[in-house]
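Sorry to interrupt, but I need a hand with the structure work. Please put the record directly below this note.
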Amino acid sequence: MDPRANHMEATFRALRRLYPEDTTALGNRGEEPFPVLISTILSQRTRDEVTEEASRRLFARYSTPEAMARASPRDLERLIRPVGFYPTKARRLIEACHHLLERHGGRVPDTLEELLRVPGVGRKTANCVLVYGFGQEAIPVDTHVHRITNRLGWVKTRSPEETEMALARLVPRRHWLPLNHLFVQFGRDICRPIGPQCPRCPIAGCPSRRA
């Protein structure tokens, strides 16, 4: 096993000890694909806490594709503000719901190809739906995953899309399902974008580690 593979295995062991919650049960925790889809669309260029609050307000009023498709853009804007680009996202949510109703009978598709045809859905959103909504092996690459895997030296990439492709080649499939969950938690708590808490980091051998 090459040194990078050894480091990956050690990293996943460390993160599972740090976050012992059973990540193998992803997709079987009562998370429905539709809320995962909508929340992930809202999360683009938006802080996690802002996305969570906006999602709660939105689903309290519109909890199904049928209801959201009939909503007015102005009402959705009011509910999801201040997520990034909220006027555009309000329109995309309505378009996405119409797409689900017209093409899939109101259900969220469970393949990458079909998800990428939904308005407002890119690869990160599609992979999040596969992992968190359906329990399928995929690698959603958000800012946390992109930042941390570059800091660890696993990849040298400029975009999340490049990171996803590189990780798909490097990371064993048994780690795909929990990868995003573990790295998001780690990125929020310790490996922050600004002021990373390196003295608290349980991962040995990080080339970006600060004293």
